[in-house]
Structures are given as C-alpha cells and as structure tokens.
Predict the 3D structure of the following.
Amino acid sequence: MTPVSALRWTRRLPLSGRVGLFFVLFWALAALVGPLLAPYPIGAFVDQNVFSGASGQFLLGTDYLGRDVLSRVLLAARYTIGLGTGAALLACLCGTGLALTAVVSPAWLDELLSRFMDTLISIPSKILALVMVAAFGSSLWLLLLIAGITYIPGNYRIARALAVNLNQLDFVAVARARGEGRFYIAVREILPNMIHPLLTDLGLRFVFIVLLLSALSFLGLGVQPPAADLGSLVRENISGIAEGAPALIVPALAIATLTVGVNLLIDALPRGGRRG
Amino acid sequence: MASPISAGSSGTRKIAIMIAGRIGLAFVTLFLVSLIVFAISDLLPGDAAQEALGQSATPAQVAALRHEMGLDRPAHVRFGGWITGLAGGDAGTSLVANMPVGEIISQRLPNSLLLAAFTALVSVPLALSIGIASAMNRGGRLDRALNIATLSMVALPEFLVATLAVLIFSVHLRWLPSISMVPEDAGWGEMFQSFAMPVGALTVVVVAQMARMTRAAVVDQLDRPYVEMALLKGLSRRAIIVSHVLPNAVGPIVNAMALSMSYLLGGAIIVETIFNYPGLASLMVNAVTSRDMPLLQACAMIFCSVYLLLMLIADVVAILANPRLRTA
C-alpha cells in the first residue's frame, strides 16, 4: 500500500475508526521504539517522593517506589502488546490450522476435533486460564502459551464455519476434481478466501488476550517482577488510589485506549474486506 | 409468546424431546469439562506432596505424604474418586485451610449469588432500554452514539472501571466504602452502601454486551417482512415496535440475556478481588495463589456448571421461542 492510498483509505474511515487507528498506531509505535525514548532507566529509583504528580522532571509522575512512571509505562506497553500479539497469533494460527484440517479431513476427525473444541469453549476463558496458571506457573512463555491456548477454540469455531461454507463452493469442487491434495485445497483454495474475516478475528482475539493478561497481572498471577506489563503496573500502584496518582491511572488508561482503539478500528473496517 | 402447550401434543412432545436432548448434552459436556479441569490441574507438573514438604524433605517423607493424599493411585482412579465425590457433594479437603472444601464454598457461594442477583436486577432493565432504544433509532445519531459507547465499554478492563469507581465515590466524594463487607444484620442503607460499587462495576461489564445483543435481536426482527407489512398499512414506528416486534423478539432477547450473563463470571473474578468481597471468585483467586488444588478444582467446576446452565437456558429459550418448532 503506497502512502497516498493509505491516506485515502484512512479518510474513508468514520471518525470512530480514525480515533481507533490513531490509538493502535500510537501504541504500536510506543511498543516498538518507546523503551528507547524512556527518560530514565526502568528500575531506577529517581525520586525521593513516591506517587508524585506530573512535573517537568517526571512527565507522568513517579510510582510507589519513586520510579519514573513514563519509562515504566513505555516498557510495560511492550510486554503487554508483545505478549498480546504473540498469543493472538498463536491462537489464530492453531485455531485456523485445526479448522482447515477438520474441514478437509474425514468426518470422524472433524467430529472429534469439533467436540473437543466445544468442550474447551464451555469453560469460561478466565477460569481456564486461572486453572492453567495454577498448574503450570506464570513465566512469560507460559503466559503466552496459556493465553493463546485459551482462545484457540473461539478462533477454531469461526474459522471452521467459514471454511465449511467455502468447502462447498464450485471452485473447491473443481480443484478436487482436478485431483489436488487436501493440503493444497486447504491452503491454496480455502484459506485465501477467508483471510479478511480471520484478520478481524485476530484483532478481536488480541483485545480479549490483552484484557485477560492484564487481569491476570492485576491479580498478581500474570507477568512477575521485575518484568511488568500494564496490568502489573496497575496492581503495584493500587495503594496510590487515595492520591489519584498518575502511576495508577496512566497504565489503566493505557490498556483501555489500546483495547478500545483496536475495537473501534475493527468495527469501522468495511465489511467483506474490499481493501485492495 | 404463546404457551407451547397449546400447540398440540405432537409439537409438545417434540419440544420435550429436544429439551431433554439439550439437557443430556449439557451433562455430557460437564463431564468432559471436568475431565479437562482435572487433567490440567492434577496430571501435569507440580506434585502437591513435594510442594507441601518443601525441598528439604526426604524421599521417604514425600512418599508417605503422597500415599496419605492418595497421589500414588493411578490417575483414572483418582479422577473417578474425585468426580463421584463432587457429584455426591464431597469435594475433598482444602490443602491450605485443612477444612472440607464443601464447607468453605458453602460460606462463600450465597454471597456471590447475591451479587449476581443484584447485578442482574440492575443490568437487565438497563440493557433492554439501551438495546431497544438503539434498535428503534437504527442508523440514527443515538444509535451510532450508543454503538460507540457500548463498543468501548466491552473493551474496558474491569479493574479500570472498579478503580475509577473507588477513586470517585470513595476517595473524592466519600460516599461509599472502598471495601465491600456484608454484615450479618445490615439494614437496607448499609446493604446499599456495600453493594453499590461492586454491583455498579459488574453492571458496566455486563450491560454493554447485553445491550448489543438485544439490539441485534430486535434489528433482526425489524428486517422481517411482517414489519414492512405493518409499516405499509400505516402503523407508527412505536406501535410496530411495541405490538409487533417485541413479542417476536422476546425469545432472542432472553437468549441474549442468558448468554451475556456469562460475562458476569469473568467480571466477578476482578470485582470481588478489588472490593475484597467474600465471594466465590475471590476464593478461587486465593486458591490459585496458594495452589490449593482441591479448592481450585471445585470452584472451577462450579463456574463451569453455572456457565453451562446459562448456555442451556439460552438454548431452551431459543427452542421455545421458535414458532416453527412450537406448531410443528
């Protein structure tokens, strides 16, 4: 996409979509280069006072140990967005992969996979994640896996519904008559035709996963110190609530603007994917 | 909505069979769910005996404790013992509190049910009004504004809502306590004070989803030919909505309500923890922190059962509300 067509595409979005796009780009940029711009080292105690308000020296104030909030939020955003993106990709790759397998496989395998996914989907996602955290622990890689696994069934269900419909269309029948193998049919015939709704679903999974991981970190069961995601920042600064400290408000608002932004952007995207 | 019984015995029987089928399926799913919960929490790494005794324990001590806790039996035997115990109301003994799990849960469960009931009481009428108002003005300014508002609320983290509520109502206005206790002999005023914030926070979590689904259910009806017919014979929009659309949309709306009440489960985990509310969800979080597996398994199974029950209600309502099934 050239810059000009990108600009034209942006103009066609409704206002809510442009607001969403702004937040998404803002946080993507913050996660990529933010930590380089951090004014202070991440763990450094730079202020004698704790929970100080915004000032010229500390743009977003300091936290419960007198550390610079801006620096910590920039790094925490990288954890939140990195984990969220990784887990959302994992959920969608596995979910869609399994769905495609199910659709081009014999009926018994499809039935088996679908029943298993139906069972997993009958466990509320936070409960499933809590049970897995209790059993396995919560290192960064485990959290990524746990969040990804939790949202595989949701993506599977959507991808399978799309793939079943496509599988009945003529061009797939033609490919089958040509003698193409199952893998070719799944990846070259079916997958390209469902990529747009799947991208939308990827965005939604990302929102769910960011909310889930922040909630876990907020409960003290997610990202463990010294690493911190935005949910951990809210947790560790919760005692600043009496002062209404920016250390507490800023990370909470950061999560909200990120998830609401993605949601608004997805909602504003043209349906059916006419994007060239 | 006409009573299904008036539809003649063959239709009634057909519906009864379908509903019985759904109930059976729900029990099968519950069994499979229990298998997964057990497998994750019991078969995989981490040995409760080793955990309890610490690194310095001798192998003999660990083996003795393993035997005492029944960990040396094969997995399927333990699963059988656990699931029959659960079905009979005996969920084992909490590793941390050293009390029967059933006893701990029976103290907490009524509190959570009370919270859920209050939340439903507030959120259902609110969601209905938002959803119907939105659908009536479809495409209008109000509809678009409500769409953006509910869309944003769906994506808000529960703890942001709860934290902001504490900040505004406890810290700045000093109207409400930031910790929600349920005193034994509380008057209505105290009850209101301690429930206002948890219920409010949970309502924000649930109401957006509920309103969106209500709107979708009503809008789905608005596209039907009978609405066009009513429009063509000159009825006002309000009359169409009230006397034609709503009776037909009751089924889908109740379905939507049951489905979105399930969001309460996830929300309750955060909200109960923030307000220190002595409910089941905060108990479960404690069980995760202390790796108290019997307690955790029992809590997880209660949440899964409630979730499946809500899904079942949604399913049954959908069957009862489908006129084609009623008269078949």
